[in-house]
Amino acid sequence: HFKFWSSKRQISKYQLLILNSYTSHFTREFIQFYNNHLIILFTTILYTTYIYQPLNVVYGKAVAKAFPNGYINFNKIEFLQALYIVRIDTFKSSTILSAWRKSGLIPFNLSVVVNQIRLPSKLQLATPLLETALIDNRLLKTPSNARMLETIVVLLVKDEGIQDKT
Known about the structure:
This is DDE-1 domain-containing protein. This protein is mainly α.
């Protein structure tokens, strides 16, 4: 699906597909297909995509502010009217620039994202040095190719005691 739709706008030899870290779609065939088509698979850290997606960072908060009481029983017409008003109030150039800045993307500021990431509770120890010592170094690096991604998946599965079903 990605290959079909993205190839129409492809401007370089390689493409990048950003994935969440759920491993259900990381089959051998999946990885091989993308490897054969020069599509680099980049996985995000589990449960962190909300931190660096501009729509979540600013617009999600704007919608929550517009509807502070949470769910309101809308019919479709009322929902579209309310959505239109929220969009007019929030989709301004200043808000868009703020969203990219607050997500650490433009200008690029890695610390915006990194400072919000929390390790799983079993790894939250007294000293950061000790935390790092317990984590395999390969898990701390973004995979540079499909083989590296597969290695990380194997390490994670092994660490969680999950049986490989292949």
